[in-house]
Amino acid sequence: MKIDQLFSVSGKSAVITGGASGFGLAAGRALAMNGADVTLIDMNADALAAAAKSLADDGLTVATAVADVTGKEAIRKAIDDAAACCGGIDILFANAGISGGPGFLQTDGSRNPATQIENQSNEVWEKVLDVNVMGIVKTIQSAVPHMKKQGHGRIVVTSSCSATKTEVFVGSGYVISKAALGHLVRQLAHELAAFNITVNAISPGPAATNIAGGRMKDPEAAKLFSRYIPMHRVAQPEDVVGALLFFASPASAYVTGAEILVDGGAVLGIAD
Questions:
Q1: Residue 272 pLDDT more than 70?
Q2: For a Cys staple, 39 with which of 63, 186, 256, 262, CB 3.0–4.6 Å?
Q3: Domain residue spans of the chain
């Protein structure tokens, strides 16, 4: 098979949550550029409109839907509408997620009393688990019936390198939510394999996206985190595109329950 066929997504229907910015927008751009019919879903209507305009300015047309992944009926309607418009759902990029707040250490190495486990807000934990775990579950639940009906599908979840290691500057709720996603991916990969539906994860490291208020877009914060990354930089949204195209295309036809780290070596330990 030629490489342009191996990684082809032309004519495929793709739905992306958290699609108005960051990894979601970069993925939407890449899929649309390569011939996929793309629907971007996001809870921020203004950001979604700006994203669609940005793509249109580049000659790319995408559909959009405003929905919060924590609302089961809202996300189901958005995905049902995308399926009706495009004749099914071939690719689902379940990407929406939020931060769990700061970690138990501050950047100067001191401990922040407010973020010690005994003082952490249960509301923060509940929110991050609701979005990062149950939001992914509800999104997948909405897409799977369409994939089963058509006899195939590709589900890709945005996890994190934090799923496999502890963190000092990142909130515990976020780390635990991403660890849960790792096993969710494996469990659903097992369950859905009989229906020719693959389930895989992309696990980025610290990235210059809008998560945590766009913290990594600040040069000083990026510089701090880069000290702990062997490649000496934080991820850019476009860094996930290669892994996504692999999981979305024929190249990964026999791959399920897998995770690709896109972290610049962050899980390997402190950089030299």
A1: no
A2: 63
A3: 3-266
223-232 pLDDT, tens digit per residue, is: 888 888 999 9
The CA distance from 212 to 145, in Å, is 33
Which of 222, 237, 193 has the alpha carbon at shortest distance from 20?
A: 237
The residue type found at 148 is K
User: Could you read off the pLDDT of 47-65 as tens digits, one per residue?
Assistant: 999 999 999 999 999 999 9
Measured CA to CA, the distance from residue 59 to residue 248 in angstroms comes to 22
Say if residues 16 and 64 touch (Cβ distance below 8 Å).
no
Q: Is the pTM of this model over 0.70?
A: yes
Q: What amino acid positions are annotated as catalytic residues? A: 160, 174, 178
Tokens of 13: 């229907």
Closest by CA position to 185, among listed 197, 162, 201, 196: 201
d(CA 247, CA 262): 13
User: Residue 239: which of 158, 166, 170, 128 has the closest Cα?
Assistant: 158
Average pLDDT, the chain: 95
pLDDT tens for 120-134 read: 999 999 999 999 999
Which letter, b or e, does each residue of 77-109 get, where b requires 16 or more Cβ atoms within 10 Å of its Cβ? ebbebbbeebebbbbbbbbbbbbbbbbbeeeee
Domain covering 3-266: architecture: 3-Layer(aba) Sandwich (3.40)
Kindly list the distances between the CA atom of residue 251 and the CA atoms of 87, 164, 248, in Å, as whole numbers in the listed order: 23, 26, 8
